[in-house]
Structure formats: structure tokens, C-alpha cells
């Protein structure tokens, strides 16, 4: 077996440590600063690299860290798993319904195998793709996953690489695609041994999480190849269908050919080779349509991106909250909702009070298909980054939750749900960590308290991220699904997803064709997609909504509803919604 490592920081020698034996490695004459060695090894054998006689370090390209990020790596034989679903041809983003899922809290067991046993529920609901939060190893057992330090490996407490393959295989057998959240903008603060080998980080730039990943300084060619190789390994070795790229706005990259362009080109080539759709989903707060504009048209070529502006507008319309970045949206929440549904970004060259500057750029509605953007009412960020991790269901009526579902699932964007949303889960989803470094654990605990002290929260009210009970509270309670009002809401989600799949107007990619009307004071909102009207009453009182035509056919309704009469006015009960076909 060939072992290899890029180690320009080694002065004189690199040794391969393999199952308590050691041998020297040779410099690769064809690749500068690469070291190689041949050795007999079997699946599961522990190994690592020793630089200039120092401690044994895990492989930067480790596929498995059975003893955590600080322990030795383990060999993963490529043929150790026999795939069952060899006929899987993938699922495209057009027509998709995404479901964001955190392995550690989706089930009490918190493992990939336990989550795989529940995938039938999602297939039956009508979900097309499961979007997994990060799986790379991090110190401890439980965490969100954004502090990963081994970008090629799978967190061992989740089940390791074999469990991920079983999960993907099970999903594909049920017709579900799998998307994996990956973090290229920073590495975790603990357990990161990459800088010992090479300039993976640079002090030329800084991020909110410390030194930036080296995308443009000396040595960045190899670092970029490392990250692209990791991305392709998820798609190739684990047969994942797409990657969600965390916070691409934090990728500091001054090179003419950006890392994101290189990555999207590599993913497109891979998709062509394997003849199945593979894609990238960006998280970006830039409100810049160039993120998803094809490379041949001068864009970065990412296939779609999260649309936080739509979320913020919908959230303020539902809750009336106006703190922080919600302030701009809360001035006229239904107007903000109309702008984001009709023009994608709220900040499209407008002044952002949260940023203190003008922000964003308009989307070309004629040339840009709707599936370039993902729409949602809740995500891990928008729940977990609240002080107590409260979901919308903690404060909204079932009627308003149903209105949120109608706007997401009949709107033009690719809809995404956060796990448990479909039944109005009452369990919170809180910020939790399991740092093994006591100083880091205390710093995170105090930092969380300071973050919310300025908004009136007492320290005792902020859940302790390091307390195991914080994670336990965040685990879904599946028994809720069979109780009211959860069962009714679950049936509503199922009905809307089926409607989206069955009505061609609801999968129309034409953003320019969306038509909207609203009354800020009366709290009603309506939009048209083809011959379908979606009407929502956010207010507590009944509303008369002028549709301009009488009759029609009710496709779905939350609460009692009949088509408009001859006067063209739709009478809609408070906190309810309706989907109507004009014919």
C-alpha cells in the first residue's frame, strides 16, 4: 500500500509509523515536498507520520480517526464496503425538497445507523434530499460539527466511514439523495495538526474563527488541491450527491481564479465522468448573484445558494421580531416578503442598517432559474444561534406554522426544512459542544453568555454548551408525530409537498413570472404562480383578499375555506392559508 504526505515543514526526514513499526519515507522526485513509502497494511491498521523525530501525527488525508483527532489514523480499504444500490443515477436540484438533519440529535442514539433507520419517514413525506450537517471529526462526542479538523474523515462517534456508506446506500435505496455540509473556511480550534505539516493556514487574513485557510498565500496551490480532493472524495468514495459549502463569504481569496471556481469546475467534471447530477450549495451573506451564475457567464458556478433574506422577511412577518439583522425587514415585513419572493434578495444594492453600508446586487430574474436559490423558514443557524435555541413552534400557533410551510413549499425557491419542522417539534435545538480542552470549554461557555448579555439575557438563562443535558434537550421527540397538533401539521406538510410535485406551476423555474400582492395593515399576502394562487392571512382576524376573479378550485387549505365569490374576494380565516387553482 502506498502512503504519501505533503510535508514542506519537515526539515530532514519523515517516518511512517504503522502498527508500532517505523520506516523512513522517501522524497517524491516528481512532486516537491511530498514524501512516500510502500508498506503492507490492512483495513483498520493504525498509522501516522513522524516529522523530524517528533510525535506521531495523524494523516492530513486520514479517512478515519478511530481514537479522535489527536490519535493515529486508520487505514480504510476502498473495497471494505460492498454497495447495494449500484443503479443509483442521482437526483437533480430542480424539483428538489431538502431536509437539513444533524446526526447527533436526529435520534437519541446520535449515530448514522440510527438516523438511517428513520429515513423511510422522509421518503414517505416526499423529501428528495437529506442535507447532513458536518461529519468531520472533532474532539469529544457531541457538537454541531463546524469545528472539524480532519476534512477527509467521518466522526467516529457517529459510526465512522462505514456507517456513512451504509447511510448513503440506505438513502439511495429509498430514492433519497444525500447532501453533506462541508467547512472550507476554517478549522476547529482543538485537535488541528495540519499546520505541523504545511502552510494550511495563513496569518495574512483572519476570520471570526482565527487564522484563515491558505487559499492565496505561498503553498496555496497544494492547499486548494487538498480541499478539492476532499470534496471529490465525498462525492466519489461515499457517493454523496451534493455538498453544502459553509459560509463561503469567509473564504478569503485574492487570486484571479478563485477557489470556488476551481471547485465548481472540478465537481462539474466529476459529474460528467460518473454521469449523474452532483452539485454545490453555497451559504453566502453577500447577496451576490454571481455566486450561482455559471462560470462561462463570469460567475463562480455554484449551483445554488441559501437565501437568508427570504428567511429574514418570513421570520419578521411571522414573529414581529426586529432585533439585529431583522431590523430592515421588520419595517414593512410583508413588503420585505414580497420583495424576496419576487426579486430574491431584499438587499440588492440597498442600505443595510445591520452592516452600516449598502449591500447586495440585483438578480437577473429573466436569466436566473428559481432553483439557484434555497428557501426556508428555519435552519440550524436560525434556531441554534438564538439564546435558548427556540424553534418557531415555541411561540407561533399551528396556523402560523402552516402559513410558513405554505410559503416555503409553494414558493419559487428550492424548499428546505429543518429536522422536526414538519410536525412542529417542540424540542429546542440549542448550541452544544463537547470540548475536551477545559480552557476552551470555559471560553466557549463564557463567550455564549457574553453574546446574549447585551440583549437582556441573564447568564443563568443561557444553556451551558458543555452540559450534556443541552444536547439531550435538542434531540427530537418522535412520539410528538402521533399527537395533536403535530399530526395535523405533519399531514399538512405531506399535502403541500405532494402538491408541489403534482402541479407543474409550482415547479416553474421562471422567477420573473411570480406576481404578488399584500396589505401590510390587514396582514394578508397573496402570490401567483401560473394559474395557482397562494393566499396567507398572518392576522388573527378574518381577512377579505381581493383576487379579482370568482370561483376556482381549492387545492389545499388550513382551516375552512371556499373559493372567492362573484365579487372576487376571498374570505380567509385568521392565521390560515389556502392554495387555489384559478380554473
From TrEMBL:
Keywords: Carbohydrate metabolism, Cytoplasm, Glycosidase, Hydrolase. Residues 469-478 have a biased composition (Basic and acidic residues). The record marks 381 as: Transition state stabilizer. It catalyses: hydrolysis of (1->4)-alpha-D-glucosidic linkage in 4-alpha-D-[(1->4)-alpha-D-glucanosyl]n trehalose to yield trehalose and (1->4)-alpha-D-glucan. Pfam families: Alpha-amylase, DUF3459. GO terms for cellular component: cytoplasm. GO terms for molecular function: 4-alpha-D-(1->4)-alpha-D-glucanotrehalose trehalohydrolase activity. Residues 45-75, 459-478 are annotated as: Disordered. GO terms for biological process: trehalose biosynthetic process. Residues 75-448 form the Glycosyl hydrolase family 13 catalytic domain. It comes from the Bacteria. The keyword Hydrolase applies. Its EC number is 3.2.1.141. Coiled coil: none annotated. It is found in: Cytoplasm. Substrate binds at residues 244-249, 308-312, 380-385. Pathway: Glycan biosynthesis; trehalose biosynthesis. The keyword Membrane does not apply. It is an enzyme of class 3 (hydrolase). The active site is at residues 246, 283. PANTHER family: 1,4-ALPHA-GLUCAN-BRANCHING ENZYME, MALTO-OLIGOSYLTREHALOSE TREHALOHYDROLASE. Belongs to the glycosyl hydrolase 13 family. This is Malto-oligosyltrehalose trehalohydrolase. It comes from Streptomyces tirandamycinicus.
Amino acid at each position: 500500500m502506498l502512503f504519501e504526505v505533503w510535508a514542506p515543514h519537515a526539515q530532514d526526514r519523515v517516518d511512517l509509523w504503522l502498527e508500532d513499526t517505523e520506516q523512513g519515507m522517501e522524497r517524491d522526485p516528481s512532486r516537491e515536498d511530498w514524501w512516500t513509502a510502500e508498506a503492507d497494511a490492512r483495513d483498520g491498521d493504525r498509522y501516522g507520520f513522524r516529522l523530524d523525530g517528533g510525535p506521531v501525527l495523524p494523516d492530513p488525508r486520514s479517512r478515519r480517526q478511530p481514537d479522535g483527532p489527536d490519535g493515529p489514523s486508520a487505514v480504510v480499504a476502498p473495497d471494505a464496503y460492498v454497495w447495494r444500490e449500484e443503479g443509483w443515477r442521482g437526483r437533480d436540484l430542480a424539483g428538489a425538497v431538502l431536509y437539513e438533519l444533524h446526526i447527533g440529535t436526529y435520534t437519541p442514539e446520535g449515530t448514522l445507523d440510527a438516523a438511517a433507520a428513520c429515513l423511510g419517514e422522509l421518503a414517505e413525506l416526499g423529501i428528495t434530499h437529506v442535507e447532513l450537517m458536518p461529519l468531520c471529526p472533532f474532539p469529544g462526542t457531541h457538537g454541531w460539527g463546524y469545528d472539524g479538523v480532519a476534512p477527509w474523515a467521518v466522526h467516529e462517534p457517529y459510526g465512522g466511514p462505514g456507517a456513512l456508506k451504509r447511510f448513503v446506500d440506505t438513502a439511495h435505496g429509498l430514492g433519497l439523495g444525500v447532501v453533506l455540509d462541508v467547512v472550507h473556511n476554517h478549522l476547529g480550534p482543538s485537535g488541528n495538526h495540519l499546520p505541523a505539516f504545511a502552510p494550511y493556514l495563513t496569518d495574512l487574513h483572519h476570520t471570526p474563527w482565527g487564522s484563515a485557510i491558505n487559499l492565496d498565500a505561498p503553498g496555496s496551490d497544494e492547499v486548494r488541491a487538498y480541499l478539492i480532493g476532499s470534496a471529490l472524495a465525498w462525492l466519489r468514495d461515499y457517493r454523496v450527491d451534493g455538498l453544502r459549502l459553509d459560509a463561503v463569504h469567509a473564504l478569503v481569496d485574492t487570486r484571479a481564479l478563485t477557489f470556488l471556481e476551481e471547485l465548481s469546475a472540478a465537481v462539474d467534471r466529476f459529474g460528467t465522468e460518473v454521469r449523474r447530477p452532483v452539485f454545490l450549495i453555497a451559504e453566502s451573506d453577500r447577496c451576490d448573484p454571481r455566486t450561482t451564475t455559471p462560470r462561462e457567464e463570469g460567475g463562480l458556478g455554484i449551483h445554488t445558494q441559501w437565501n437568508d433574506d427570504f428567511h429574514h422577511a418570513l421570520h419578521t412577518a411571522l414573529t414581529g421580531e426586529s432585533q439585529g439583522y431583522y431590523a430592515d425587514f421588520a419595517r414593512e415585513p410583508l413588503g420585505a416578503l414580497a420583495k424576496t419572493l419576487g426579486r430574491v434578495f431584499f438587499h440588492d444594492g440597498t442600505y443595510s442598517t445591520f452592516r452600516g453600508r449598502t449591500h447586495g446586487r440585483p438578480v437577473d430574474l429573466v436569466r436566473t432559474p428559481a432553483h439557484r436559490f434555497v428557501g426556508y423558514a428555519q435552519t440550524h443557524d436560525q434556531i441554534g444561534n438564538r439564546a435558548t435555541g427556540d424553534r418557531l413552534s415555541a411561540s407561533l400557533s399551528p396556523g402560523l406554522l402552516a402559513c410558513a410551510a405554505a410559503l416555503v413549499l409553494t414558493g419559487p425557491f428550492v424548499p428546505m426544512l429543518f429536522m422536526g419542522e414538519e410536525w412542529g417539534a417542540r424540542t429546542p435545538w440549542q448550541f452544544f459542544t463537547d470540548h475536551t480542552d477545559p480552557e476552551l470549554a470555559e471560553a466557549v461557555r463564557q463567550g455564549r453568555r457574553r453574546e446574549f448579555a447585551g440583549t437582556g439575557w441573564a447568564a443563568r438563562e443561557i444553556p451551558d454548551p458543555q452540559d450534556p443535558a443541552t444536547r439531550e434537550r435538542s434531540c427530537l421527540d418522535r412520539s410528538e408525530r402521533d399527537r395533536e397538533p403535530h399530526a395535523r401539521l405533519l399531514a399538512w406538510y405531506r399535502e403541500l409537498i405532494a402538491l408541489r410535485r403534482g402541479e407543474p406551476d409550482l415547479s416553474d423555474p421562471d422567477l420573473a413570472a411570480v406576481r404578488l400582492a399584500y396589505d401590510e395593515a390587514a396582514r394578508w399576502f397573496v402570490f401567483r404562480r401560473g394559474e395557482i394562487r397562494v393566499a396567507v392571512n398572518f392576522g388573527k382576524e378574518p381577512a377579505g383578499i381581493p383576487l379579482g376573479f370568482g370561483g376556482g378550485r381549492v387545492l389545499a387549505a388550513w382551516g375552512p375555506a371556499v373559493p372567492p365569490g362573484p365579487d372576487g374576494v376571498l374570505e380567509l380565516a385568521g392565521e390560515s392559508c389556502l392554495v387555489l387553482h384559478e380554473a
